[in-house]
Every structure is written in C-alpha cells, then in structure tokens.
Amino acid sequence: MPGSPAADVPAPRLADALEGRANAAGAEGLRPYGLRCEHRTAPLGIDETAPLLGWRLSSARRGDDPVAYRVRVAEEAAGLADGVEALWDTGRVQDADAIGVTYAGPALRPRTRYHWRVDVWSAGSPVPAEATSWFETGMTDSAWQAAWITHDPDPLPVMDAPIEGERALDNYGLAPCPVLRRTFTLTAGTRRARLYVSARGLYDVRVNGTRVGNAELAPGWTDYTRRIQYQTYDVTDLLQDGENVLAATVADGWWSGFVGFEPRRAGAHYGSFPQLLAELRITAADGTTTTIATDDTWRTATGAVRHADLLMGECHDLRHAAAGWEHPGFDDVHWSPAMVVDRDHRLLVASADEPVRAMAEVRPRSIARIAPDTHIVDFGQNMAGRIRLNAAGLPSGARVVIRHAEVLDTSRRLYTDNLRTAAATDVLISDGRPRIVFEPRFTYHGFRYAEIRGIRELSGADVVAVALHSDTSWAGGFDCSDPDIRRLYDCVAWGQRSNFVSVPTDCPQRDERLGWLADAQVFLPTAALNADVAAFFTKWLRDVEDARDPDGGFSNVAPRLVGVADQGAPGWGDAGVIIPWHLYRVYGDSRFLARAFDGMHTWVDLIHRHNPDLVWRHRVGPHFSDWLAPGTPTPREVIATAYFAHSAHLTARAADVLGHQDLAKTYHRLAADIRTAFREHFVTVEDADGTPVVRVAGDTQTGYLVALAFGLLPTGHTEAAARRLAELVETDGPRLQTGFLGVALAAPVLDAHGRADLAHALLRRTEAPSWLFPLRHGATTIWERWDGWTPETGFRAASMNSFNHYALGSIGEWLYRGVAGLDQAPESTAYRHLSVRPVPGDLGHAAARYESARGTVETAWTRHEDRIELCVRVPPGAIADVRVPTTDPRTVRESDLDLPKAEHVTVLETADDHVVARVASGRYRFTAAHTPMGRHPGPTPLGRHRPPRIPSPAATQPAGPHEEETP
Questions:
Q1: Any catalytic annotation for residue 858?
Q2: Cβ atoms of 49 and 85 closer than 8 Å
Q3: Chain center to CA of 99
Q4: Active site residue: 406, 784, 858, 869, which one?
Q5: What would the pLDDT profile of 155-182 be if each residue is shown by its tens digit?
Q6: What angle do CA 742, 747, 748 make, to 5 degrees?
C-alpha cells in the first residue's frame, strides 16, 4: 500500500522453552498469587454486594495440587491474623478445584476498605501458603449529596465577524468545554479522602492542580438512559491544610458529542451539554468528616479547550486559558455560579472494569517535510490514541493543525476518505508562551500517520503517539519460527488494543466506533487468550442487556443508539448467548450465565415464536449474513438457522450449569429439533458408488463451516461434508471465501476434521484473500476487508474500508489452540483439564503462554533435525492430555525417561503418529522421533484422520503485540 513499508522485523521470542526436567527437592511449593476481586486487582470502589474473590496457583513441583482453602475478610489488615476473629471466615474448605469463592458474610458497608486473605493447603502439608489483598466498596446504596452541575449553556455569546486565525478551522457546532472549580479549607490534617466522580460526558479532575488518577475518557460509554458509571479515587495525599481546590473540565464525549454514522442523528444521542457530578468525602486526623459535593456554590467558566469531540477532534486555544485556575489562590470572582441540572442518582453504578488508560508511547519511524511548515509523521504502527506535541517559539495566535490517517494515498499524502464524516483533527492555537506541550484529553483517533501543519522544524523528539485502550492486562503470548505469522499475531494484538476502548468497537477511526455484537463474539476466543477480559466483558454484557428491545431481543450494537440497526440479526443478536457461555468456560464464573440467562432464553424463544417451523426466516433484522465474504453468498436462511440451533444448544447447556433442569430439557429438545429442520431444508445426501455425497444449500465454505462447527449434521455425514469443505477451500488456492462469521470457524473446523494441512496453507497464503496479503503491503493491524487495498484496484469503497478492524483476526485463536497446542478439553472450565495438541505444519517451532484463571499455562515445541521436543507447563489443580506427534511412538520420552518411569505421566493412547499422555500439574519435556522439515507426510486422508480437535464453542478471536513499542 502506498506509504506503508513492508519490511519484516521479527517479533521477540517468548520466554525460553519450558524446563521439563523433574523438579528438584526443595523447589518452591504451592502458593496462591494474582488475587482478584470481581476479576480486578485491588479494585477501589465496587458496588457488588457479594463479590467474587479469586486467586491463581503456582508451584515448582509436579503434582503439587491444592486440597483445601480458607478465605478471611476483615476491615483491618490485623483482623486477618491467625487467632483473630474476622468479619467473615470460610473456615477450611475441602475443595481441590477451587480458585475463588463468593463473599457470603455480613453486609458490606459503603465506602469501606476490606482486607482479605486466602490460605491454600497442598496434599500432605499441614501448613498452608497464604496471600493477601484488599478491595474497597463505593457509594453503593448510600445517599449521594452531589448534584449534576454544568456551566450555563443557554447564554449566547456576542458574535463579531470572524477574523482569520480566530477560529480553529471549524467547531462543528460544538461548544467550549466548561471548567468548574470549588475551593475549601482544611485545618485538622487528612487521614482519608475519597473522590467519587462521574460525568454526563467526559471529565478530567484535578486536586490542587494535580490530576486525579490516570483514567482516560472517563467515566466510559454506557447507555446513559440506563446506567451511568462513576469512579472512586484515593486523593488523601493530594490534600493540604489551608486552601484546597477541586477542579474539573468536562467534555461532550459519547453523551452529547458525535457518535455513529446516522446522518439524521449524528450526535447528542443522550443529552445536549456535558455535566459533572463529584463528591469528596474527607476524614480528618481527629475523626471529623467533611463532604465537598457539586452544587451551585461551584464556580464555572469556559477555558482553553474550545471544543472536544471523539470523532471530530479537539481544539486548544491557549489565549482563553486562565492561568492557575486549578490551584489555590486563583480569583474566580468573575466566573459564574454553576447551574444545577438535577439531583438524580438512580442510574449511578460503580465501574465494573478498569478504565481506558494511556498504555504505550510510540516514537516516529520517519518524518517527511511536504511543505515549509507541514510534515507527515509515520509512527510505523496503526493504533488508537492521540499525539503529544512539543512546540517552541510559536507567536500568539499561531495555529498548529494535526490531522490523522491510517494510510497514505499514491501521492504520499493522508488518505482520509475512509474516515467518512470524522474530521479527526486536533488544533493548537498559541498564546505566545515559549514552550507548549499539546496533548488532547477528550478525543482519540485511529491512525498511523499524522500531518502536522504550522511548525517549520519538527524532530522525532518533538512528537510521540500515545496509544489508548481499556486496561485489560495482557495474559497471553504467541511465537513461532515464521516471521510473517509472528507479524500476523502482532497485527491481531494491535487490532484488539485499538478497539477495546470502553466497549469492543468495530474500528477506531471513522464515524462509527460502535460495539457491534457479531464482531465481538467472533473475536472473543482470541481476545480472551490475549488478555484478561473478564471485567471488560462483565461491563459490556450489561450494555448488551441494556440494549435489549421491548420484546427481549438483542440488538446489533451495544450501547444501543437509536436508529442504528436496532433489531438483532443472525450471528449478531446471538452474541448475547455465545459470549456469556464462552466467558464461563474461560473463567469458570457461572455468574456470567446467571446474569445473562434471562436474555439468552428470551432470545431463543423470540426466534422460535417468529419461526415456528424452526427455519429462521422472519424477525431477522438487517440480516448481515456472512458480512464482507468475497465469494458466492451463503443463503441467509442457512446461516440464520445454524445460529438458531447453536444458540438453543448453548442456552440448554447454560441451563444445565445453572441447575434449571426442566428448562435444560426444553432447550436441548428444541436444539435437536432445529438440527433436524436444518438437515431437512438445507442438506442433501446422495450415493456415489457407495460413498455419500453431502451438499449444504448454497455449497459455500461458510455453509459447511457452520454446519460442521455447530454439529448440525448426522455423524455419518460429517466426513463427507468436511471433504466437500476441503474441496471448496482447495479450489483456486487454497483460499478462503468467508466473511466475518465464517472466518472464525475455518482453521478450527479444518483442523478438527483432519485437514490441518489446509489450515496451515491458508495461514501461509500471501495473495488476497488471505491474512498475510495485507502484511505484504504494510499492514500493522487487521483490515476490515480482505482486499481493502490492492495494487490492481487501489482502495476499496471508502464508505466501508477500515484498516484496523479485528473481526478477520479471529485466526488468533487457532494460533494458540492449533499451532502451539494450548487448549482446554471440551467439558473443561477455567482450564481445569488442558488439551495440548500442537499442529506443527511446516513450522520449526512455536510457543504460547497464557495466564489462565487457574494459573500459568505454557506450551512450546521445537523441531531438532529428526526429533521434536514438546514442553508443557500445567498449573496446580489442573491436568493435561498431551498429544506428542511422532513418527515412532517407541521413541517418546519425558525428561529423557521412558514414559512408564516418568513421574506423574500416564499413557492414554498410542498410535502410529502420536502418543497421548495425561500429566498432573508441573513442567514436562517430551521428546520423540519426528519427520524432518521438508519430508513431512502429505495430508491425512479424511477416512483416517486423527481424533478430532473440538472447535471453540464461541466463534473466533484475535490478538498480538508490535515489536517496537509494545503496550
């Protein structure tokens, strides 16, 4: 692509291969670590009345598994000591599987810190290992004193004819951002101070000039008619005796700014002007309490931020800045009193996840001057974020304009047609001060390139890109011998980072950035391997629930926007069923199912009610089908009915887990009936000389993929259907002809049915459509289209052509599960039972690491001439079935020992090309004879394929870090 370098810089390898030798005596034993409350580390300000307290386990010894645990909770750390009565104490609980417990003690008080401790016993050890942490409750049900306040939006300013330089290009009809302040005096010292703050819009809060916290774009996006999040901050160290100032700037954000692409409703979806709500609770050293809350005693004005919008950008005119307004001693006599909007606190909820934060800084790869005062900066990485610019010597009134783009056009200028109506433009107007650091606070853009106009000299030290995304701690990693596949993983990872911004968006650059349900459900398996997304999706599933329509159906986007594809489509609305199920399997937290179950079964009932013949034709919403598939369209009824069956099946399984036995029987029966209807309407079987020939209506790759992945075919016909799928893939390629829904299933299904060779061939393909084609043309994130740009056609339709779109990155799941072999068994949850089944293909080595809810899981395999080495790490409390590929089963060893002599190793299966061994927790190193690279046997005939690998119950995933500046 023009302006996009295709140079290959290998990503760093994962940690050295796992040490598989038997653990030496005296090695570190079982211990808990990674303590979490509500899937977060030491959360400050939760409103869950019965929080889940969880822990991970580690041990350097094999078979060192837990047998019991004990959890204690107290208001003081000293209350956790042995012999002291705690607020709540589980006592010793015999449970070898436990990695968490739900609090069941006395009601938690609001605004209170609780300390907790977990003790874990291993077999034969009378002394437990322990770890401690804390959590703090928020306002919960306590009475708020704060009011929603703002700067009076009604008075119209006196207007003169504009003078050149006075306006920042365009303000898009946006008003200047209000600034608000409140002074107060303290005299008795501060023992504890908590600030509870929210906004209808976005906020930036300061105490005595110091920024509070590091959250960006807070309080985050929700449907403000249903829920408004607030955050809690510890500001004890920011207060002082004497005068103090609590100051804030608020901006439109999702509340009253531009959101989405509906031209008749481009913005102001929830309100018309931003508002602040804040309550500061102070406990003095002498025990007295003081509350400072937003009310009409606050003073307001407008300041340097002349407009700020998530899509359009942000303008800072420093001539309007009031120096020192955030600090004590400022004279605000000419400011206006704040206007109280209302005192409605009913929708306030504590944040359930970590906020968006500035997670990385990326320095320029190159800077090109294109005019005397204009430069194009290439940061070498497509991302979501903003730019921080250092400028010197700008006279008063001088204007610097920063425009953003993902790619360059053929003239090596910014290509912005695909941004549609998003201006993505930030503006600085100088007040003449010698040095200025300009960094927007209330916007973000999707970009790799920036055009900076208004500065004659620009060096790499003057500008940096700041990557923003929700702070989901990175949990996984993948590495292999092929630099192209490593770069693909990096693209997947950056796509995830760029689009997990408060909600899982489709893209970060154009006038959309919506939480599309199908994109999220196909990508979730990858996302959950890359990062700990439990809290992130806890929050977003509440958005999904809030977006349900009056008859209970799921929408296509969440948070919901009026007029944006309201009625859930097949594969989109089904995300309300698929996502909770997958999260339950990954994290072992059945509350994902309990909270979602009403929506799950209501959705299935809704489809059933409108389609009593069990073929989903009616109430299909916009029916996007297999979105952006390049090949022959799959019949819409095939995709819809397949998802209908899948959702009914997962709802039945959720009912099983939750103990709803009667409902489980109902939905298992319904799922079976839909499968029958699918076969009757869409599957034909003919006999060709004694061999069944199976055809799924439409005869497309996606048709066979959904039929095989969702178990819609009789057992006797799956092999023939898989054979036909392979034939379609091999035609003119091999290559894929799938869109968003089908692509997630392709590699797992081919692998499961004995054609891992085809999955590898698709992975390594470099012509469009393929994953590597964009990389060969400079991509650093996954594209929305397989052919978003080609040398022959140039850019595809600008109306829908994102270069940072994670849906097609769902191949990331198979990199972990297939190539590296890091997976869990079909009935396992929270990685209690691992399935290690690597598929080497033509690669020389591959490795994956994942910080599961139970502990660290690692796999690494390497070919050495005529043998293969496979190293595995299994966390305490888990077991693993390890499939060792080999050309001679007699040569398989573990830590250089014959398998019968190896500690905690039991052989389950021996075949000509593999051995399966079950191992306990610990580290293992298997070796075996294996065909050297270049002499691999051909594809396994479908009639003699290995035992099937079970495709993921959800559909798709993505993730991967950039080698230069990894968040």
A1: no
A2: no
A3: 23
A4: 784
A5: 655 555 555 544 445 688 899 999 999 9
A6: 95
